[in-house]
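worker-03 picked up job from queue 'complexes'. Input manifest follows; two sequence lines, order preserved.
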Amino acid sequence: LSDRERVLLTPGPLSTSRAVREAMLRDLGSRDVEFLAITARVRERLLALAGAEASHACVPLQGSGTFAVEAAIGTLVPADGQLLVASNGAYGRRMAAIAGRLGRPCSLLELPETSPVDPEAVARALAGPRPPSHLAVVHCETSTGIRNPLEAVAAVAARARVPLLVDAMSTFGALPVDARRTPFTALVASANKCLQGVPGVGFALVERTALAAARGRAPSLALDLFDQHEGFERTGQWRFTPPTHVVAALARALDELEAEGGVAARGRRYAESCRVLVAGMRKLGFETLLPDALQAPIIVTFLAPADPRFVFDAFYDGLRRRGFVIYPGKLSETPSFRIGCIGDVSSSDLERAVAAVAETLGELGVSSPGTS
Amino acid sequence: LSDRERVLLTPGPLSTSRAVREAMLRDLGSRDVEFLAITARVRERLLALAGAEASHACVPLQGSGTFAVEAAIGTLVPADGQLLVASNGAYGRRMAAIAGRLGRPCSLLELPETSPVDPEAVARALAGPRPPSHLAVVHCETSTGIRNPLEAVAAVAARARVPLLVDAMSTFGALPVDARRTPFTALVASANKCLQGVPGVGFALVERTALAAARGRAPSLALDLFDQHEGFERTGQWRFTPPTHVVAALARALDELEAEGGVAARGRRYAESCRVLVAGMRKLGFETLLPDALQAPIIVTFLAPADPRFVFDAFYDGLRRRGFVIYPGKLSETPSFRIGCIGDVSSSDLERAVAAVAETLGELGVSSPGTS
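worker-03 finished. Artifact:
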């Protein structure tokens, strides 16, 4: 089986459409008019997806999504600021680690991996005697697949007048977010998750007022969103060589998102894929880490069967031979694995994946995957 | 004319082969065995190109080449260090700007844009009462096309026992460098210049001893070469999502470099392209900024004709319509433009480009491009 047909059931890089990949067959000059037009259109459309045209600027950045998260923290949180990260997983902790490296004072409001961030606890933290200057939250913690109540957290932050930074890496394009109803100072995501582009570029949607106040603040030249934005505004160009092929693929992917019916339609497709996956896996005896009410339709964590014949590497390999690439778990304690629902993948792919899981279990001699 | 056929005569992104672009038609899982094998092989081959297998580690990094330059400075120059940049152009000044942002003390040994870095002046600077902790130099200043005497500068640095950081962005893969004869602590380059890959990933070849001493030093999580390297060594994986398609294209590009006959053969092809370009343009009356002895066979700066009918944007557009994308000048003073010799381009492409220049001049009514 060639990788061309293999389905990536991961949190990204994920399976993209043939047309998205074919958009990379052309070499474009990074300062040529055609590429500048592609860049401008991508920036506009990303803003429009979040209803943020009037209030925010879209600042694309080379690199993985984490590069854009670091750039947002470094550009927006001043050296004498204080970042509070409401966290329930690895990506929340990563934001705190970034702040630490950048020398930005930071504290964690940490919850168990299976508990959604609690807006009331956040409200209490923001009302304390020394409130933080900035609040950060992850929309969907890809480490478990849990969906955090972004709207409620944003409302709490707005009431306390604390600027909110959102890591929407694994949700943007599939779960709706509207800056006019869900106020945020910055929202960070990347091309290669729910937007179904290829990896190599991230972006931040940043409130123009916050950006304007951030000149010279970032402790980095490459990861400075103020400078990057100023470059786009002044010349339409990227300051440093952009991944032209990746950006062209993103432009094509945004066309496909529109053709599919936008964020709502894509979210419905993922939700159906997620439903088929979870129902099928439960039929085989698997348990999900999360109750359905907390599950984002992005990636699902399944508990590993207690049967010692279940060895993740062998399980992974059996699925891979059958055409499916899955992900190891990322939990601190419980053995688990993850199967993604996002990308250019349909619910029938997930049905086939469940069948491949059943076959692989048979091959491994794991008869009852129930963990109890 | 579609961009598929347009020839990019720029310092990158440049024209790549169809096969390099077709390597991006597959979606690979970033933690899957196949992609890990591609990553390992790319890392090995980049080291081998510099004869650095025994002494250095190859640390690829997401983003443009500048991201890798910043990562090298942040990871290798400690907060109480002192970086001296021997500079004769925009990319040398950029290294100093990076050090400034990172809070690393830095000074510039600055020369005019048309003078190569002077090893004796560097030697004197390194012998001063308070010598710098690190020296940095750009191999070919893409802002003019000047070739700096890397071997002599490296010898001077080695004698003074000052670690050398080399920005070899626009030369690596075409001008030979051998770590066994030209000692350097770090050499930084990117996929999409003389290696003829696509943009989106850079890399640093770093002395293992220097890397081992750099734990926790980088003032960044994303741009930390120590952590990035440790990730590769521990798991074979990239810490953060890699641009899988871009890396696959680089692997293919390295195959093509080998098939062409390696760095020497590629350097010869570029030198021939450069010779044809310069001879043809001189025949039309153009003057090069640099004498031939200082010119790297990478990109050539031509002085703009004095004739007021020569308007760069119109000239650019005329060439573009004829299938060639060139670059504006980057000189502080003299009006100029640049034409690149690198990429999947032959001397006959350069011949055609010169013919297109002649036609475009006719169209603009510029009869004698001589500047005097």
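worker-03 released lock.
Chain B has a mean pLDDT of 96.
Residues 262-283 of chain B form the longest helix (22 residues).
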